[in-house]
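Query structure, 808 tokens:
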């Protein structure tokens, strides 16, 4: 977040090439003994009025330091930049201005020049995900638009040359709606938009579905890159698209003149309402690095929780003092740095009164240089992760769990802040024929609520809307005003608490397969309850979709009735017997295994080939999408990766009977079935056994353990034994302490809402995330860099909700 135009500039160590602010440079010198630093400082100088002559701001020193980002907020005709560089020698702070060929040895001069001309490390590490600032298209100002009477409806589009209804582009010259090409996120096309350009030469197109009051995605075929169109509102209006309709209401229309906002993009971002910017500690925005809004939203919520503030910001001096020599690779240092940036108020300062008066007099608005850029944090926390390290949009819920996993692995002292989310789930499984039961416990961090669509309170309106929508689509007329399903929260809670059928259940009482049901209850209540509304699903045609619903989430929540009760009088437990491994009569025959289609669909939504998803779920024993995802990552380079599933003969792979996974073998040895599954993924047997032991025979966590210790694949047996002892002790803390142990903060089941994260878009792999938090008695919206007082918090449209326990 520190840049050369920050107060005090940037100090770069000439030994490690790490950068530090003025307040941290002394600490680094004392800690390392490194005494030579390159000091970079940018001075912003206001020009004399009229001096620029309409030219862009001038840079007195043409060399761009370290390829760092410029302050675009000051990129106007009123300012020019002066870059200053000097060597600083500690401890006396002796300064040598650069360039200085006479005083400095040749090697030092070469090193300084190389450092000043070096590219940002993030451009080197992530060349595919680096995004330059979009430039205005050269065609935008004088774009020719044909007066052909074409009018574009708000929805119901399809390619005019094929039947595709996704990845559609509107040509801004003649109004043609055509499909683009296939992309990694699963959106497909036949390239008709590009063919049209080659035939006509019409250069600009806007992607349908991206148009909001704030702008739209525009592509220039001639310039071969995404561009800005400063006249996009006028160009869209030519085809009947009023993109600025919601902004008109800010210029004096009465509240009762404002049309109801229906689009989730408008409602969630509170478009059409003049929002008051908020400044100061805890009101700092975060720059979107290119589809990083999921990270921004989650981190804003995380650092609104006192336990995380205490652990990282409260311990900041200690964390910095004891950080490794390369703090860019230390999780706790990066968390403390990010937390300090969000909570210190140093990067969220209101404009001076004189600046406001000047803006009013000039009838212009200059955005403040506020907020932080979490580029180093994102680079570290996503390192090695196939999804979060990309520049694609991600699921905020998955990132939250990824973050909690890292917090668990990197404790700060005795307190682990992730404990505030941790709770125990009691699962009661009953054999429907023998009526016997089994009780088990597992740890979780999120309460996932299904959407009870059948309980919608406006079914008649939904049916009428669907009929009108289909009629409008058939006649190519504008669609009717959106009607959103209204789901009572109580119905979602009821659906969560109801018994679920257990697929392929094997009853140890009957020694055979039988019907079984499972119910889940809270064995403990967390201090902070995170609730996810499961809006993302698949249609009957396997196309991923998002349920556009309104759920009346309560401000105050009481789930005390979901408290687990354990084995009840009169209940008889199922025998603790593992199911047998069934060997077919024909050892060369084919045996079958039911495949969890819901896991297959989750993986397919990520863009993986359908057959590969089926193989991943099959070979990981139906243990869920996350385990299957790890299998995909390990096998995606194989030539037959996307080939259809051919179930092997018995003996080619070990049995993957998932029902036996809970059983513990003799001498605390993991079940052979689980070991075989890990071996089938390409790992060594001894590594599989140690991973399972280290995670108390939890296959999902064992795979995670292996991926987090990649160097151990080459380690010797003694080294693996030592790692096994360390991790097994940590993994068994919960089993030893029970629900009353220090890792569980049990208490009342009554909560109050203090924040929620909302998603806009049709899939977790696209769209935008926004966070709302309740601070100092009022709601605040965090929309990347924009932090404002919320006027109409859309609590019914959230995706992830944060509740804190009400003291009893």
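Result returned for the query:
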């Amino acid at each position: 977040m520190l840049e050369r135009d920050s107060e005090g500039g940037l100090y770069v160590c000439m030994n490690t090439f790490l950068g530090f602010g003025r307040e941290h440079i002394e600490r680094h010198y004392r800690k390392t003994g490194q005494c030579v630093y390159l000091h970079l400082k940018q001075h912003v100088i206001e020009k004399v009025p009229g001096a620029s002559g309409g030219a862009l701001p001038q840079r007195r020193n043409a060399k761009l330091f370290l390829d760092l980002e410029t302050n675009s907020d000051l990129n106007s005709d009123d300012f020019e930049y002066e870059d200053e560089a000097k060597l600083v020698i500690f401890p006396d702070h002796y300064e040598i201005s650069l360039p200085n060929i006479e005083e400095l040895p040749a090697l030092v001069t070469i090193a300084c020049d190389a450092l000043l001309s070096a590219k940002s490390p993030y451009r080197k590490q992530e060349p595919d995900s680096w995004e330059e600032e979009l430039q205005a298209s050269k065609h935008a100002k004088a774009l020719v638009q044909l007066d052909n009477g074409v009018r574009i409806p708000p929805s119901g589009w399809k390619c005019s040359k094929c039947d595709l209804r996704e990845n559609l582009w509107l040509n801004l010259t003649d109004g043609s709606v055509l499909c683009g090409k296939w992309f990694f996120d699963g959106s497909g096309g036949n390239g008709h938009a590009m063919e049209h350009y080659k035939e006509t030469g019409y250069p600009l197109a806007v992607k349908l579905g991206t148009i909001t009051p704030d702008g739209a995605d525009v592509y220039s075929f001639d310039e071969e890159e995404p561009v800005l169109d400063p006249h996009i509102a006028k160009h869209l209006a030519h085809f009947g698209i009023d993109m600025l309709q919601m902004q008109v209401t800010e210029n004096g229309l009465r509240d009762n003149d404002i049309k109801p906002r229906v689009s989730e993009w408008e409602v969630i971002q509170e478009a059409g309402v003049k929002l008051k910017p908020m400044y100061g500690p805890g009101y700092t925005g975060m720059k979107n690095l290119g589809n990083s809004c999921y990270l921004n939203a989650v981190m804003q919520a995380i650092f609104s929780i006192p336990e995380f503030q205490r652990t990282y910001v409260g311990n900041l001096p200690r964390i910095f003092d004891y950080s490794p020599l390369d703090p860019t690779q230390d999780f706790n240092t990066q968390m403390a740095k990010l937390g300090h940036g969000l909570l210190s108020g140093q990067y969220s300062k209101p404009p001076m009164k004189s600046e406001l008066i000047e803006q009013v007099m000039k009838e212009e608005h200059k955005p403040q240089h506020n907020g932080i850029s979490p580029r180093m944090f994102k680079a570290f926390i996503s390192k090695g992760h196939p999804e979060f390290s990309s520049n694609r949009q991600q699921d905020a819920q998955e990132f939250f769990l990824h973050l909690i996993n890292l917090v668990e692995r990197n404790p700060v002292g005795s307190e682990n802040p992730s404990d505030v989310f941790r709770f125990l789930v009691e699962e009661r499984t009953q054999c429907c024929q023998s009526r016997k039961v089994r009780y088990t416990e597992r740890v979780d961090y999120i309460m996932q609520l299904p959407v009870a669509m059948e309980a919608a309170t406006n079914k008649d309106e939904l049916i009428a809307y669907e009929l009108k929508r289909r009629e409008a689509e058939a006649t190519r007329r504008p669609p009717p005003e959106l009607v959103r399903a209204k789901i009572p929260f109580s119905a979602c809670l009821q659906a969560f608490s109801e018994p679920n059928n257990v697929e392929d259940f094997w009853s140890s009482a009957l020694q055979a397969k039988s019907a079984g049901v499972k119910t889940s209850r809270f064995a403990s209540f967390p201090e902070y309850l995170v609730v996810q509304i499961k809006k993302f699903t698949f249609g009957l045609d396997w196309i991923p979709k998002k349920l556009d619903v309104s759920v009346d989430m309560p401000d105050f929540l009481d789930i005390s009735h979901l408290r687990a009760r354990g084995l009840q009088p009169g209940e008889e437990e199922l025998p603790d017997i593992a199911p047998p491994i069934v060997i077919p009569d024909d050892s060369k025959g084919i045996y079958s295994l039911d495949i969890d289609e819901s896991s297959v669909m989750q993986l397919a939504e990520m863009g993986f080939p359908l057959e590969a998803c089926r193989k991943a779920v099959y070979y990981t024993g139906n243990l869920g999408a996350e385990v299957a995802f790890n299998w995909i990552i390990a096998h995606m380079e194989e030539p037959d990766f996307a080939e259809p599933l051919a179930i092997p003969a018995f003996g080619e792979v070990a049995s993957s009977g998932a029902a036996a996974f809970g059983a513990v073998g003799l001498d605390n040895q993991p079940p052979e079935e689980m070991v075989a599954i890990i071996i089938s993924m390409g790992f060594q047997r001894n590594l599989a056994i140690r991973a399972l032991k280290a995670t108390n025979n939890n296959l999902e966590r064992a795979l995670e353990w292996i991926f987090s210790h990649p160097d151990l694949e080459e380690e010797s047996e003694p080294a693996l034994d030592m790692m096994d002892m360390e991790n097994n002790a940590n993994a068994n803390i919960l089993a030893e302490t029970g629900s009353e142990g220090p890792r569980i903060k049990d208490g009342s089941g009554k909560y109050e809402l203090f924040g929620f994260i909302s998603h806009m878009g049709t899939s977790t792999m696209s769209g935008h995330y926004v966070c709302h938090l309740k601070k100092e008695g009022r709601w605040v919206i965090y929309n990347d860099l924009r932090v404002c007082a919320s006027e109409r918090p859309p609590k019914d449209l959230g995706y992830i909700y944060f509740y804190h326990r009400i003291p009893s």
